[in-house]
Specification:
The chain is an alpha/beta fold and 404 residues long. The protein has two domains: 180 residues, Rossmann fold; 214 residues, Rossmann fold (3-Layer(aba) Sandwich). It contains 13 helices and 19 strands. Helix 1 packs parallel to helix 2, helix 4 crosses helix 7 and helix 9 packs across helix 13. Bound molecules: flavin mononucleotide (FMN).
Amino acid sequence: MNAILGVGGGIAAYKSAELARALMERGLRVQVVLTPAAERFITPLTFAALTGRKVITDLFASGSAEETLSSAIEHIAVAQDNDVLVVAPTTADLMARLARGHANDFLSTTYLAFTVPVVLAPAMNTNMWMHPATQENLAILRKRGHVIIEPEEGILACGMTGPGRLAEPDRIADIVASLGLKLHDLEGETVLVTAGPTQEPLDPVRYISNRSSGKMGYALAQAAAQRGARVILVSGPVQLPAPHGVLFIPVHTAAEMRNAVMEHLGETSIILKAAAVADYHVSRVPQHKIKKTAMRMSLELDPTPDILAELGQKKGDRLLVGFAAETENLVAGARQKLESKNCDMVVANLVNQDGTGFESDQNEVVLVLRTGEAIPLARAPKREIADRIFDQALKLRLALHAAQ
Ligand SMILES: Cc1cc2nc3c(=O)[nH]c(=O)nc-3n(C[C@H](O)[C@H](O)[C@H](O)COP(=O)(O)O)c2cc1C
């Protein structure tokens, strides 16, 4: 696998030499690109000696017109020849340029020409990191599906204590290498993901719903697509763009979600039911808006279709992964769901009693498996958790086949 290591002009630039070596130790070929500011902190010679390859620094070559032209198209070639772009350290300025699509140096121009996974490891002073401008750029880059390895807390070069330190090079290299190894391990699979809440109408203008943001399901769809699967995403209403390259089926109600899922069941090999489907819906939805009165009113509710249970009955040898949000007895609740719905795995996460936690970009879960194991996953971005879920799902399928 070939990686571009982009280095920004920050104090932590010296650590990217260690990162280049760590990436190479994991079997990657590394092409280093330095920003002009990075060259003030570390010399191209260091990287050339470490990687044995020419280091790219300029968008405009200083020689003849031909040299300038070949340099100008080099970024397209570099973008096409590589499997992953890692930027470490990502400076605040680079975050702004990448978020906004500037192309004023070799690294940012290459980024725009790049279609494969991007891993960003920011490092900066705590106040720079916490500044709303940086956080807004971070949100844009995260929404674009890039893997963000957040800075760690500690004493910074400026003397402040707080988040801002570049993540350890070995950790960055591990994440990059695992992305690469997994790029194609879902090839040939059709993965069906349900995501988001459902909306059950009360009348033409009101509905019952829940706090699900859809972020976990969208992260799963994105991870599956990046690992080579054909992906069908059946989603309730959320504020997220559909991930690139997936078959996107928007729905509102549990009944619509059930129909979409059953319609595509025949094509799928792995099903992940990450949606927070309403358990009840109003029995008879009035044609007109319910008027306010001084009287107490009650709603008559019927259960919605139990999509997971129906999938459990019809799944055959498909891998079925359910999700359980619990406010107590996490693992016991997940085991019970696994048994009663005939799932192969249940991803259980503890939600706070006040209902917060759904909207977070991070998650902390326990994977409860049909084999009896319960695997806790430490708090991490949902995109990283999504990869761990697929890692375990593939292992589990091998174990289940071996046991047959
Ligand atoms: C001594 C010094 C240390 C710096 N350290 C950082 C840093 O750790 N993180 C950061 O985002 N910017 C840092 N900067 C600011 C960047 O160098 C500056 O924003 C530069 O334009 C970044 O260019 P680049 O993003 O193209 O590499 C530092 C500047 C100086 C002079």
